[in-house]
Amino acid sequence: MSTGASAWLRDDDGVTTIPAYEVVAIRMRRAIHLGELAPGSKLPAERILSERMGVSRVTLREAIRVLEGEGYVEVSRGRGGGTTVHTGTMSPEEVSAWMVPRWKELEAIFDFRLVNERRATERAATRVDASGLAELREIADQGTRSADVNEFRTWDVRFHLFIADLAESALLRQAVEEARAELYVPFRAVPLERLLKISGHQHLAIVAALEKGDPRRAGKAMEKHLTAATAQMEELAGVASR
Questions:
Q1: Angle 40-236-74 (CA atoms, 0-180°, nearest 5)?
Q2: CATH architecture entry for 92-237
Q3: pLDDT score at 11
Q4: β-strand 14-19 against 73-76: which pairing, if any?
Q5: What percent of the chain has pLDDT over 90?
Q6: E strands within 34-173?
Q7: Half-sphere exposure for 206 (CA within 13 Å, toward CB)
Q8: pLDDT tens, the chain, 242 aa long
Q9: 8 A C-beta contact, residue 34 and residue 177
Q10: Hey, where are the domains in the chain?
Q11: CATH entry, 6-85, from 1.10.10.410, 1.10.10.10, 3.90.190.20, 3.30.200.20
Q12: Residue 189 contacts by C-beta under 8 Å, 6 or more apart in sequence?
């Protein structure tokens, strides 16, 4: 990572330059979307975090200011202060208002996710060993014991990405991660009770299918899970009847 004033990124028009702090903000935003920086967690001290990310403290401060303005983090100053990842609570009405103008794009992401996660699960069924199955079941079990939505979301991301890892395909792993990162906002309004009742139960069904070593059964279990998740999003966006 460059520590200078800007970094090079490529877009559809060729090569463009964006400020280094925005590159850092992109990395941190994505880490929040994927649960690597969990809601409610406190970031390491500025000196430590800047060293880990390979950027100057000035660049890191600018990135955090951007994220604070977007509502991703909360900054408290003074003795005992620091930067905390925002819990990300949004009402169903707020999420719906965000989703409606983006629905066609979201619908395409749901389809993309379904194809790639179903295939990842099918591949995982023929490759996972006893140790991997035990770890996956533990992740699923931890999700069902979640005390709040943020905790469940963290375990949920780990569950899906772990299956993608088991598929032993870097491209599939990247596809699953990309789709998940794009769906951070829609999943913020689903209540915990519903997550535990539907998603938690379906995660366990996916694990059971993988334990059978049956690719078709495992893929179908994942398809059922993602179809139900999409239906929840349609309901939130008010497009279920369209």
A1: 20
A2: Up-down Bundle (1.20)
A3: 52
A4: unpaired
A5: 65
A6: 73-76, 82-85
A7: 33
A8: 333 444 444 555 555 678 999 999 999 999 998 888 888 889 999 999 999 999 999 999 999 999 999 889 999 887 777 899 987 667 888 888 989 999 999 999 999 999 999 999 999 999 999 999 999 999 999 999 998 888 888 899 999 999 999 999 999 999 999 999 998 888 777 788 888 889 999 999 999 999 999 999 999 999 999 999 999 899 888 876 44
A9: yes
A10: 6-85, 92-237
A11: 1.10.10.10
A12: 90, 91, 92, 94, 95, 96, 236
The crossing angle, in degrees rounded to 10, of helices 149-166 and 130-144 is: 160
Radius of gyration of the chain (CA): 19
Nearest by Cα to 53 from 31, 76, 77, 75? 31
Question: If you search the block for the tokens 């990405």, which residue do you land on?
Answer: 161
Of the CA atoms within 13 Å of residue 219, those in its CB half-sphere come to 13
| φ, ψ at 78 (rounded to 5°) | 95, -175
Q: Taking the chain, what is the end-to-end CA distance rounded to the nearest angstrom?
A: 46
